[in-house]
Amino acid sequence: MTLVTSSELPDLSEDDQVLLPLLEERGVDARIAIWDDPDVDWEEAGLCIIRTVTDYAPRRDEFFHWAHSVPKLLNNPTILEWNSDKHYLQELSDRGLPTIDTTWLEVEREYSKHQVHTRFPANGEFVVKPAVSSGLHATGRYTAREAYSRMAAIQHAMAILEEGHAAMVQRYILSMEERGEISLIFFNGLLSHAVEKDPILDSPTGEPRRKHINRAHPHVITAGERTRGEDVRATLHASIKELLGRDEQLIYCRIDMVAGDEALEILEVSLFDCNLYLTSDPKAAEAFADAIAMRAFW
Length: 298
Known about the structure:
It is built from 8 helices and 14 strands. By secondary structure, the protein is an alpha+beta fold. Strands 5-8-6-7-11 form a 5-stranded antiparallel sheet, covered by helices on one side. It has a 5-stranded antiparallel sheet with strand order 12-10-9-13-14. Strands 2-1-3-4 form a 4-stranded parallel sheet, with no helix packed on it.
């Protein structure tokens, strides 16, 4: 089987490098390959599992043309294409899940700077980010109280739109100052482990920041978080069944949530190009290796 990465991380991320010896212990002959390496024969690559592909977003069409050509790819490329555009959050919201309130700035509306300005919150702090992005793409935190910050937010949103992507405007969740994001990680549909991540946008800024891997700490899952995670997983599978016309088991899924004003709100659901925090919990890497071995020998 093959673990798929990008040329920026040819030996996998540091977090994923623990996998190869664990897979070998389980009798799985695993190799690493870069998704756009012309010398790789994907017909002979066996089961392929996408890990970190940090360069996919600016080459989205090329990446998914490749993904659909791979005979045995997990997660399913049709699902990944759906997940690569954060408009999927609208669908999850329509199905009853609590997601962060979002104003969507669509490319086809051809907004002027003034129109973008009027769609920002009148007070408080907010975040601007692209609907199609990888972990390295810019996310900015701004404040409605300062003119320079609103101007920077306008420039950020316009730059995203000019790149041909929708821009998202979301309120900043103040609870993240005291408690960062909670990520629940599932393997083959089973909850494996959770981490609590420090906030990465620690103050409003006049410039969008490039997101990086949050510092993560092992987290003891509460009953409420477990329930919310299972709700998300069930809703996600309903969307997948509608998308594919059949049930499909995900090899991995990461659900990011935060304490909102009244309930746990969903920030994001990541089905590829995401850190699974395998080194944050002693059993996490073992659980992922078990999940891969199970699929490799199906």
